[in-house]
């Protein structure tokens, strides 16, 4: 299968601190990848590199075999949608107006949304189950509602790859299950997904692959059962050894909940 | 269940009303503005009632030479000036609010009026403002001053892609004060004669001086270019409301947008200042009220703001020159009376919503 997105020997860092060195990875059409790792290891940075809003210092990111450097951001945004962790809107835009912004990469300077743009927006609202929120003001939504509306904006871009930055952040358990259902639904729609995940308990049964970033190590890739192993996690997250039994319990029990 | 249905119906009703307002407001504003022009033209020390103007227009009974002179050399230029100034200030306010992602931005508050004033004052002292070349240079220098000061305030107040309210207001206040008082310095330096001084003092008070038709033409061209240039920016400002990084991801060139808004906003401020001087808060009140009526979509706000701004300042200026007749109030005094409390109310509200 031709890869959708490829990281080719990526190097990136902030100042003297190197985050990635010779990182190689690829995403194919029906991948659903959870990106995990300790705080500050560069999960969001990797998502930004994938979205083309950051450029790697060396190496290359390829979208369908074309370097992101050679593509305009408009073109990238038609294939890859990045859903950030926090979005602050400075004016009281409604949910519908918010989601319409996802059509920006398709619009010309003059002229508004056409019939096809409308259809994409409606489909995005429908898939995320947010059509009933359309005339609510985005800034007044609850955390769970905001999360789904942000994903709707990403879906309005009609992407092939969806990048989610901490989609489960600040959601109560009920809303977390809603998000799990939504991610499963999007997989069925044929979207490739790369999501950074803080909470490891929701990964099994939802994601097909886990990418584990650890400081000063190469990224590990594999199926959830292999990567979410207490020994592996203990090293990567630098957990105090005396908490090992709880780590074991954590990964075992919670994965049952998710399935 | 029944409650939900009722709530949904109520929401639908609200939406429908908002849509109707969105459709009807611009033509209604235009109609009221066109109606307000002859009414305002009739008001003043020499009363020219509507029926008299109507008869003259229909060719039944022409105006006397004096009345003709009053109408075409005094009243109409003044009215058009108020319309242009109001439009320019309101649209530049709308643009700056979108760029700063802050509803408190206003050409006066953030110092671009002050910059335009200093530039324009330089023009007045270098060349006589009455000649076309002189006025053109004045307007050009006002533009340079406005663009320079806004860029400075933006750079001072910006942190993490946002402009915190306090940083914006403080930077704007400092820059604006420095620039306005620099204009006083020029006044002292000008020892040749009183003409420049007269222009400068009316600018500092925010009086719409009696413009000539050639000045009006220059300003009208600037305003038309400015508003026309704002049209492609309007939708970009909607996207920018999501934050600079997100806008960038969606394919907006943030840097180019920033430069375009600063240039076009400054052009509009400069045009307005070269006719009316420091007129405060107009660029704040007009977009804010329209946002409450029409919602925050800049594409819809732009034409309504241009028209409502024109109407607002025409009414304010007509009041300013008639309420204490035969004396005249600077219209800047009036907008400060109306706009100052309004600004403080918004500041209070912003403080409750987000911690400063």
Tags for this entry?
A: 259 residues; alpha/beta; Rossmann fold; 6-stranded mixed beta sheet; 9 helices; 21% strand; globular; B: ABC transporter involved in vitamin B12 uptake, BtuC
CATH architecture of chain B: Orthogonal Bundle
Low-confidence stretches of chain B are none
Corresponding CATH superfamily of chain B: ABC transporter involved in vitamin B12 uptake, BtuC
Q: Please state the CA-atom Rg of chain B, rounded to the nearest Å.
A: 21 Å
Named CATH topology of chain B: ABC transporter involved in vitamin B12 uptake, BtuC
CATH topology of the largest domain in chain A: Rossmann fold
Question: SSE string of chain B, helix = H, strand = E?
Answer: HHHHHHHHHHHHH
User: What is the percentage of strand-forming residues of chain B?
Assistant: under 5%
CATH homologous superfamily classification of the largest domain in chain A: P-loop containing nucleotide triphosphate hydrolases
Kindly describe this structure.
The complex is a heterodimer of chains A (259) and B (356). Chain A is an alpha/beta fold. Chain A contains nine helices and ten strands. In chain A, the strands form two sheets. Chain A has a six-stranded mixed beta sheet with strand order 6-7-8-3-9-10, with helices on both faces. In chain A, strands 2-1-4-5 form a four-stranded antiparallel beta sheet, with no helix packed on it. Chain B has a single domain (89-353), classed as ABC transporter involved in vitamin B12 uptake, BtuC. The A-B interface holds A 51-53, 72-77, 82, 84, 87-94, 97-98, 101-102, 104-105, 107, 109-110, 112, 135, 157 and B 11, 14-15, 101-103, 162, 231-232, 235, 238-239, 241-243, 245-246, 248-252, 291, 295-297, 299.
